[in-house]
Design a protein that fits this description.
This protein has helices at about 15-20, 30-40, 55-60, 125, 135-145, 170-180, 200-210, 225-230, 240-245, 270-280, 305-320; strands at about 5, 65, 70-75, 80-85, 90-100, 105, 110-115, 130, 155-160, 190-195, 215-220, 255-265, 285-290, 320-325. The protein is α/β, with parallel strands linked by helices. The protein starts with 5 loop residues before the first strand and ends in a 20-residue tail after the last strand. Bound molecules: S-adenosyl-L-homocysteine.
Length: about 350
C-alpha cells in the first residue's frame, strides 16, 4: 500500500470503468463496483462476492470506500434527526433527516461553514472553512441511509444544509450525477432541490446543465437596500439581476421554481413587501416558501409574529401566487433552517 488509494464514493461511473481498465480488468467490473458502492452501500470489498478473491485483494490496495463518520445523533420531539459528521481531515459538518408525510428528506451540506454571512443564518458565523468534495456530499447520503431502520429510505434530498452549493459547483454537480445514476443510488433529479442564496453565475451554469434538479432561491427581501443589509451577496448580484437569471431558467413542464423568504420582524414582512414580491415574481412559474425565522441569541433579528406571516401569505394568495408557510422542524435540537454550525451538544 505505497500509494494513495482512490475514494470510490466520489467517482462517476465512467471513471470507475477507466480505473478498472488501468487495473487490467474489463470495463464491466466498473459497473459492478459502482453498483456495490451506491446501490448496495457496501463498505467492505469482502461483500463483493461476484468479484474474485484475488481481485478483491488487488482492489484493497488501490481503492477505498469512505463515509464521513457519524459522531453524534440528536432526535427532535418532531422526529427530525440531526447528525454531526466528522470528515477525514477532522472538520465537522451537519446533516438532517426530516420525516414528513410519507417522505423522508435528507438535508445535506455542501461546504464546511459558509462565506456568505447572511445576517439571519448561524452557519454564516463560522465563515468558510472549505468546500466539500463530491465523495463527502454523496457520503452524507450514504451515511444517513446506513443509519435508517428497516423499511425506511431517503426519498428526497435538499442541498440546504451548511454552505452555498453554487459556490462549490463542480463538486456539487459531480455529486448529483453520482446520486442520480440509475446504475447506482438512482435518485430522481425531481426529488432533489438545490437551494441558493442567489449566486447568479451559478444559476446560469445550472440552467445550462442537464442536471434537472429543482432550484430554490432564497430571496428574503424585496428591495436592494434591505437585501444588501441582510444578505451581502446582494451587493454582488442585486435583486433585478437575480430575478432576471430566474426568469431565464429553463423549467421543464409542470415544474416550478421555489422562492424562499425568511420572515424577519419589521425587516421584510410588511404589506408593501408582499406587494413588491408579487410584482417581482410576476410571470415566473414559481411557488413561495415563507420560512418563520428560527431565532437564537447569537442572531440579531426577531421572528415575524404569526399573524403577520399569514397576512403576508394572504396577499400573495390573493394575487394568484402559491405560498406555503414552512413548518419549522427540529428547532429544539438546533436542526432547523439556518441553525447548523456543527457544534457538539
Ligand atoms: N446557502 C443556501 C442553502 C442553505 S440555507 C441558501 O441560502 O439557500 C437553507 C435555507 O434556510 C435558506 O432558504 C435560508 O434563507 C434559510 N435560513 C437561513 N437561516 C435561517 C433562519 N435562522 N431561520 C429560518 N430560515 C433560515
Amino acid at each position: 500500500m505505497s500509494r494513495d488509494r482512490v475514494d470510490l464514493v466520489g467517482l462517476l461511473l465512467p471513471e470507475v470503468e477507466t480505473l478498472m481498465g488501468e487495473l487490467g480488468q474489463p470495463r464491466y467490473r466498473g459497473r459492478q463496483l459502482f453498483h456495490w458502492v451506491h446501490a448496495c452501500r457496501a463498505l467492505d470489498m469482502n461483500q463483493m462476492t461476484d468479484l474474485s478473491k484475488t481481485f478483491r485483494v488487488i482492489l484493497k490496495d488501490h481503492i477505498s470506500i469512505s463515509r464521513p463518520e457519524i459522531t453524534q445523533v440528536q432526535r427532535s420531539s418532531d422526529g427530525t434527526r440531526k447528525f454531526l459528521l466528522r470528515l477525514s481531515d477532522g472538520e465537522d459538518i451537519e446533516s438532517v433527516l426530516i420525516p414528513d408525510d410519507g417522505r423522508l428528506t435528507a438535508c445535506i451540506s455542501t461546504q464546511v461553514g459558509c462565506p456568505l454571512a447572511c445576517r439571519f443564518c448561524l452557519t454564516g458565523l463560522m465563515g468558510l472553512r472549505r468546500n466539500l468534495v463530491a465523495g463527502e456530499i454523496v457520503g452524507q447520503v450514504l451515511a444517513l441511509q446506513d443509519r435508517l431502520e428497516q423499511g425506511e429510505w431517503i426519498s428526497n434530498i435538499v442541498l440546504m444544509g451548511m454552505g452555498e452549493p453554487l459556490l462549490n459547483f463542480p463538486q456539487v454537480d459531480r455529486a448529483l450525477r453520482i446520486l442520480c445514476d440509475e446504475r447506482g443510488a438512482n435518485f430522481s433529479p425531481r426529488r432533489i432541490t438545490l437551494s441558493t442564496a442567489g449566486h447568479v453565475v451559478g444559476i446560469r451554469k445550472l440552467a445550462a446543465s442537464d442536471l434537472g434538479v429543482n432550484l430554490a432561491v432564497s430571496l428574503t427581501a424585496t428591495t436592494d437596500a434591505v437585501r444588501d443589509q441582510i444578505m451581502p451577496i446582494n451587493r454582488r448580484w442585486p435583486i433585478a439581476e437575480l430575478i432576471k437569471a430566474c426568469r431565464a431558467y429553463p423549467l421543464p413542464n409542470r415544474r416550478r421554481l421555489t422562492f424562499e423568504y425568511v420572515m424577519l420582524d419589521g425587516v421584510n414582512d410588511s404589506r408593501q413587501d408582499a406587494k413588491r414580491l408579487v410584482g417581482l415574481l410576476h410571470g415566473i412559474r414559481c411557488k413561495i416558501n415563507l420560512i418563520p425565522f428560527n431565532t437564537t441569541p447569537d442572531l440579531p433579528d426577531r421572528a415575524s409574529p404569526r399573524e403577520r406571516v399569514e397576512a403576508f401569505q394572504r396577499i400573495l394568495h390573493d394575487a394568484g401566487l402559491t405560498a406555503t408557510i414552512r413548518e419549522s422542524r427540529g428547532w429544539d435540537i438546533s436542526a432547523a433552517c439556518g441553525m447548523l454550525r456543527a457544534e457538539k451538544a
